[in-house]
Amino acid sequence: MPYLIDGHNLIASLPDIDLADPDDEAKLVTKLRGFVAKTRRKCTVIFDSGIPGGFSSMSNKSVSVIFASAQHSNADRVLKLHIMRVKDPGNWTVISSDEAVLDQARTYKMRWMTSAEFAEKLAGDQTEDDTAGEEIDVRLSPEEVDEWLDIFSDD
């Protein structure tokens, strides 16, 4: 079940990231990468005010990062377009605090959650799965191994 996330709405609901922080988007993406690694889900997070807009280099195979064009769009508009274009809407969960976005998700029979509810889920994910001192069996796909090798290779 992939997530479609209104990025700045979620940041506003998180106690440990501030919208005034110039690195707020990067901090959220880092948090989402940890979440999807534990839950084995994928997500697309959409932010306002990207120049020039479009896919960000912060994206990886599990977390797609998109910035709405500062001149021609906003995150809500991009979210609504994504909702209309999803091929399997019943499989997706939309995360937003914007009622118009959540209404669109309901119209397309998508699951939905407010940003505040998802923020609690993220906080719970960090405390519930605390396995300090326990041995963890991590299994990676060949694609994930290649991604980590690209990140940490000496080339």
What is the secondary structure topology, with strand pairs?
Blueprint: E1 3-6, H1 7-13, H2 24-39, E2 43-50, E3 54-55, E4 63-69, H3 75-85, E5 93-95, H4 99-107, E6 111-113, H5 115-128, H6 142-152
Parallel strand pairs: 1-2, 1-5, 2-4, 5-6
Antiparallel strand pairs: 3-4
Query: What best-fitting shape do the alpha-carbon axes yield?
Result: globular
Q: From the alpha carbons, calculate the radius of gyration and give it in angstroms.
A: 16 Å
Q: What's the helix-strand series? A: EHHEEEHEHEHH
What's the CATH topology label? Rossmann fold
Give the helix level as a range of percent. 40-55%
Give the number of domains.
1
Rounded to the nearest angstrom, the distance between the terminal CA atoms is 35 Å
The first-level CATH class name: Alpha Beta
Helix count, per DSSP?
Answer: 6
List segments where confidence is low: pLDDT < 50 over at least 5 consecutive residues.
Answer: 127-136
Q: Structural class of the helix and strand makeup?
A: alpha/beta
Mean model confidence by pLDDT: 83
Short description:
The model is unreliable at 127-136 (pLDDT under 50). The longest helix has 16 residues, at 24-39. The chain contains six helices and six strands, in the order E-H-H-E-E-E-H-E-H-E-H-H.
Description of the structure:
This protein has 155 residues and is of the alpha/beta class. It has one domain: Rossmann fold (3-Layer(aba) Sandwich), CATH 3.40.50. The chain contains six helices and six strands. α1 crosses α5 and α3 packs parallel to α4. The radius of gyration is 16 Å and the shape is globular. It starts with a strand and ends with a helix. The relative contact order is 0.17. About 6% of the residues have low confidence.
